[in-house]
Write a structure and sequence with these properties.
The protein is built from twelve helices and 16 strands. It is of the alpha+beta class. Strands 3-2-1-16-15-14-13-12 form an eight-stranded antiparallel beta sheet, with helices on both faces.
């Protein structure tokens, strides 16, 4: 239920700037088909709008209950799942991965060469569970990298395998060297899929079953899944890219989308679909210190550990990241256990950044939580790639400019 914004210490008039900004700058010029925005503060929704179309070809208006591909916004959910097992004593963050994945004992680091003749050297230290939560594992990034190991990963990885699973991912990565010694650099990629496989190995459940039993079901996230059921198809938004002339091009039609069928590859890095309402419940659980409506998912202390910067020497991504692409800017941004973490307003040149944590998805979906202001913002659209427009930066200015108390 949406309350009067003033009851959440926000200005209704100023929040409406979000509507006019998105309509005038993005919808009317045809830069995106449609979008949805939710702003919640102190546990109440102060602003919610569904704008434009969810399907241009069928001229379908954006529904309040539209289903979106959230891609990498799957990662925080996967990270929470793994840290639930941490709370049960299943592992320590410093545990070497080989303890749970014996096939990875003796992994080495790329030094030179091409596929078939890679020259490698020993790791400076072993890969740990914390490394896969943080993207400091050194494993290949695939489509977002130009490294020889990335190229080989694209040839033999899950996208190239029919019937690939999280288990076969482990076998594939065992055949490749690491790009760097674990803990020395930050490399955005499929590390969170490894987290999903660890959930399976440590819990004895399939990844999708664990999510349903332990997170999605308890939180009432009824539309979050690895597929779109037939009876929900009418709510599934179309996904778009851009042509060279900047007009929108349909790249995934809801009617024929691969999300219509249950996947064999349950990607913890980017496999889920969801709704704004569902993801808001997940975010509110985080802001509440791990609990929502009487359902405890994580402890407050575990979430505090997950949402502080774990990068070496308190560094930011500008110093440690390999490659130019991820779902965040690098300046002034650290990384925790599944979340980007802003270090300061000054370093990020962004209002409201001190201590917020967040992530985004390949189709330009974003969220952030601000524990200081007790604020959550979710933006949903379906436009690839996510780096096309700086929705996060613009929305931050608009949202924080609406706080009056």
């Amino acid at each position: 239920m949406v309350i009067k914004p003033e009851e959440a210490g926000m200005s209704a008039e100023r929040l409406e700037r979000i509507t006019s900004h998105l309509e005038n700058r993005y919808l009317q010029p045809g830069k995106i088909a449609g979008c949805q925005v939710a702003v919640a503060r102190h546990g109440h929704v102060a602003y919610f709008r569904s704008l434009g179309l969810m399907d241009l070809e069928r001229e379908k208006r954006m529904r309040d209950d539209a289903i979106f591909r959230i891609y990498s916004m799957t990662k925080p959910i996967t990270s929470v799942a793994l840290m639930m097992l941490f709370e049960e004593g299943a592992f320590q963050l410093a545990d070497p991965i080989r303890r749970f994945i014996p096939e990875w004992a003796g992994l080495e680091v790329y030094e030179s060469g091409e596929a078939g003749s890679f020259a490698t050297v020993a790791c400076e230290r072993e890969m740990t569970v914390r490394d896969v939560l943080m993207h400091t594992s050194g494993i290949a990034a695939g489509f977002i990298g130009t490294h020889p190991v990335d190229a080989e990963y694209m040839k033999i990885g899950p996208r190239a395998q029919k019937g690939a699973t999280l288990a076969t991912l482990i076998d594939t990565l065992a055949k490749l060297p690491l790009k760097f010694s674990p803990g020395t650099r930050w490399n955005y990629g499929p590390s969170t899929d490894v987290c999903g496989r660890l959930v399976e190995l440590l819990s004895g459940q399939s990844f999708d079953a664990f999510l349903e039993d332990r997170i999605l079901g308890p939180l009432g996230m009824v539309d979050t899944a690895f597929r779109v059921a037939d009876d929900s198809l009418e709510r599934f938004a179309a996904n778009y890219g851009r042509r060279r002339d900047k007009t929108l091009k349909l790249i995934d039609d809801p009617e024929t989308s691969p999300y219509r069928k249950p996947p064999s590859y349950l990607s913890g890095a980017g496999g889920l679909v969801s709704t704004t309402a569902d993801y808001l419940r997940f975010c509110q659980m985080l802001l509440n210190g791990g609990e929502l409506d009487g359902e405890r998912i994580l402890s407050r202390k575990t979430l505090e550990l997950m949402t502080v910067n774990h990068l070496p020497d308190g560094g930011d991504l500008s110093k440690l990241a390999v490659g130019a692409f991820s779902e965040t800017a690098y300046e002034g941004v650290g990384f925790g256990l599944g979340f980007a973490v802003s270090e300061s307003d000054v370093a990020t040149q962004s209002v409201g950044a001190q201590g917020d944590y967040y992530w985004g998805g390949a189709a330009s979906t974003i969220f952030w939580n601000d524990p200081v202001e007790d604020l959550c913002v979710i933006f949903m659209t379906q436009l690839m790639p996510s780096a096309t427009f700086n929705f996060r930066g613009q929305l931050k200015n608009l949202v924080y400019g609406s706080i009056i108390d």
